[in-house]
Amino acid sequence: MDKVRTQSKPQGPPGSSFLSKQTFFLYASVAAALYLAQPLPAFAVPCMSVAHVDTDTVSFVELRRFQVFRVVPVGAAPVSLRADSSAGLVYVANRLSDTVSVIDTTVFAVLDTFNVGRVPTALELSPARRELYVANGFFEAQEGNSISILDTDTGNVLEVIPAIFDPLVLALSQTGDELYVGGLALREVLVVDISARDVVAEIDISGNSSDIVLSPDGSKLYAVGTGVNERTVSLIDLSTMEVAEEVAVDEATFGAISKDGSQLYVSGFSPTVSILDAADLSVLDTFDVDGTAGILRVSPDGAFLAVAHLDRDAVTIVDPTSGGLLDVVSLKGRPRDIAFFECEPLCPGDCDRDRRVSVAELVRAVNLAIRDDPPDPCLSADIDGDRRISISELIRAVDNALHGCP
User: Fold this and answer.
1) Looking at domain 45-343, does it have CATH number 2.130.10.10?
2) Do the Cβ atoms of 183 and 213 come closer than 8 Å?
């Protein structure tokens, strides 16, 4: 009797994600039939960077489709972000590496790494002075208890302001002349004169500050933290350097302010985000998110309020005015900080960055996936930054070929 011949399924290299040639050519045929071959012009859209303290990465999200388009590995335990849209850079404080990573947002890769003091916990940026301010918060080390001032062009430390006990949060004045410093070990907000490189004032508050928020007009500072017996929000009048109002707000830990300065958003260790009148701190409204709310950030154009979750790998995006849900962005890591900026997002599958995904680029990405080769010839196809191209990433590339780049 003749043996029945069977045809084994083609296999990729061990551990690789394999897409059969038949499946690929099906995708490619559809793409070729439906895709308009004209490249799209370059443009900037609202983007969001998210630091993941548990996976040592930063995710980049475009805020029209609310999709992650790139994940960049950085140093150990990234905890703070600052973005400079004009320079196309995002700065990342890596708490356990004692470094700051500089990400180039034209290619979404680490451009440089700056060495700083022990356990950097917070960043503030002055594009006008071309300086980066780093809070070094490890109070048991000689290099801690300080603020480092770095030259953003070279990464060199220009000055170290010592004897600031365990600084946790920073805010820069509208003029860029003063730096405000808060912390869990401080029962005051310190004022640093940038030109003098020294602490020039101490503003007494009833408790510590886990977050500080500057009003858009620069006239007020809000300290969110623990008072004598409860969580409080303090409104500081910067013309007098004194607390003008103080109220108790349940679980108050993190804060953000609306673009027009009329509303203050407060969250912390519960599903509830409180909306306060920024003038007198009265509670105007509340809304809940699906999970425990952490860090809050409002986009520069005022269109988005991002709520980082403390208990899940996601950021909830809401309308700051109404508190209405816009989207929930799923991530591959716990969000620790968020920074908004304008960017030209990478389009998965667009190897040559002409704002279109061609059949030739799909072929290139598929071949890299089949061979389990490094994705350098088509970095945009490696969305999660794990140095390999998976089937799900190829599907995103095909979708962009069919429907256009985001």
Assistant:
1) yes
2) no
